[in-house]
Amino acid sequence: MEISGPIMIRSLPVPRLATCLLLLCFAVEWSATARGATVRIKDITDTEGVRANQLIGYGLVVGLNGTGDRLTNSLFTRETLISMLNRLGVNIRDRETQLQTHDVAAVMVTADLPPFAHGGNRIDVTVSATGDASSLTGGTLLVTPLMAADGEVYAVAQGSLATNAFSVRGAAATMVRNVPTSGHIGNGAIVEREVPYDLGAKTHIHMSLRNPDLTTASRIAAAINHVFGPITTVLDPRTILINLVGRDPVTTLSRIGDLTVQPDSPAKVVVDEASGTIIMGADVRISTVAVAQGNLTVQVTETPLVSQPGPFSNGTTAVVPRTSINASIDKDHHLAMMPSGATLRDLVAGLNSLGVSPRDMISILQAIKADGALQADLEMR
Description:
Blueprint: H1 5-11, H2 14-34, E1 39-40, E2 45-47, E3 53-62, H3 75-87, E4 105-113, E5 122-129, E6 140-147, E7 153-160, E8 166-169, E9 174-177, E10 182-191, E11 204-209, H4 214-228, E12 232-234, E13 239-243, H5 249-257, E14 260-261, E15 268-272, E16 277-280, E17 285-286, E18 289-291, E19 296-302, E20 305-307, E21 318-320, E22 323-329, E23 336-338, H6 344-353, H7 358-371, E24 374-375, E25 377-380
Parallel strand pairs: 15-25
Antiparallel strand pairs: 1-14, 2-11, 3-4, 3-6, 4-5, 5-10, 6-7, 7-10, 8-9, 11-13, 12-13, 15-16, 17-24, 18-23, 19-22, 20-21
């Protein structure tokens, strides 16, 4: 008797049917993931003109509990304080030698002006001591203009600092947690000037990859053209030109940013000798090579002996040197063969089978690269 598909589905109980459909969805999702992880285009690219601008300013922090600059050492703090008081109508030029406060510190104020920030918007600022102040905890930043590279003031900062640090000093011990000479003011600056940029009037715009790669750029262009038609041109491994003629730039860029692609990256091994850290990409390959690693340990021990003269004798005390030298070779490590085309997993497994430490792996990777068997860029830091 022949039973059709629809009859079989109707014959399933509702809970079993839901379970089967759920497992089918999981299988489809796992299959898509196995083919390669995808990311959104807006997570790996930057759009021309949509960028932040760095701001900087010089100001004073007051209200410190005796942890500010010493005015006899930090002359710029002294002059800044005198100039500020004069602007506020307090003339102390004739009595400036009596100015000995320790509750003021000169600071540098930095901030990032985000794209499309308008007048009245608030941004975060970072405050850092420039003199010999020991702590900015509890201080208040006075009005500080923040300028950009063109010399124009784009924001004004003021407010109470938060350092999330403390410093305790005693007669014979000191405890410091975090950095008390650097603080943060959330929403501590008000934007006074806008950076003009009319995104809606653009007819052509460049999109830049944060990690330049020709394959990734081609995949991004293909994904965009598949949805919008042939509107992109790959100019170089970093830059993609998008033609927005006849389209709304904001809506089009928003839809482009949500498209997903599978990024590619060159085979690279990054080694940080200072910390012994090794990072290897998934596409790292090696040619056939044999690797052996062994440690030669030489131990030199000095145990001098003291020779004392006999009782009631005219002899002198003498020191007799005694040196012990011991050399040992680790015999547990053997020669291991790495076959041609070995993947990252094979390479790591082979090195781990030798029982080598990360610092020994650095030497081995350098030797493999010198032999020409490492088919990847080796970047030393």
